[in-house]
Amino acid sequence: MKLHLASPAATERLGALLAAHLPAMVAVLHLEGDLGAGKTTLARALLRSLGVEGPVRSPTYTLIERYDTARGEVAHLDLYRIADPEELEFLALDELAAEARLWLVEWPQRGHGMLPAVDLVLRLAVQGAGRMATLDPVSDAGRAWADSVQRAWEQAVS
Asked: Under a CB-based contact definition with an 8 Å cutoff, are residues 104 and 31 in contact?
């Protein structure tokens, strides 16, 4: 599924739809794209839509930011600064896996083999003044999530 995001507001709308249609079980969302593609903007909008108030920091330096929401704990990871996936052993991902309801992972390829199984991959690419978002479901839950988001997006656009 491909969606044209004409503005940062459209990126935020997609984040809100992802939050609104979050699967009932634990979900893992990989956010891929070059620097400046809008991954953190989308993650921030998703977190705000789940009720997170106060600062929503990019975890570029901390690697993980955790948020309590009404729908459960959300773990936002940014693995840009990881050189080797084994560096993640020191982040207590086992504990995180037991507690997190939603995983938002930026630069997931840098954590290959150390992260839980992905449900949905969202790729963002700069396209002119906007962005192109590609949602690629990997699991049955991811397919249902992407389909639900796509229907809601189409209803909002029409």
From this structure: yes
The token duo for 108 is 């997931």
Q: Measure the CA–CA gap between 102 and 68, rounded to whole angstroms.
A: 10
Residue pLDDT tens, the chain, 158 long: 899 998 889 999 999 999 999 998 889 999 999 888 888 889 999 999 999 988 887 776 678 888 988 889 999 998 888 888 777 777 777 777 778 889 999 999 988 888 889 999 999 998 888 899 999 999 999 999 999 999 999 888 76
List, in order of start, the domains of the chain with CATH numbers: 2-157 (3.40.50.300)
- Rounded to two decimals, the pTM is 0.90
Three-state DSSP state, 24: coil
Q: How far apart are CA 74 and CA 44, in angstroms?
A: 12
Q: Which of 116, 70, 122 is nearest to 93 (CA)?
A: 116
Backbone angles phi, psi at 10, to 5 degrees: -70, -40
Angle between helices 8-20 and 39-49 (to 10 degrees): 50
C-alpha 136/C-alpha 142 separation (Å) is 8
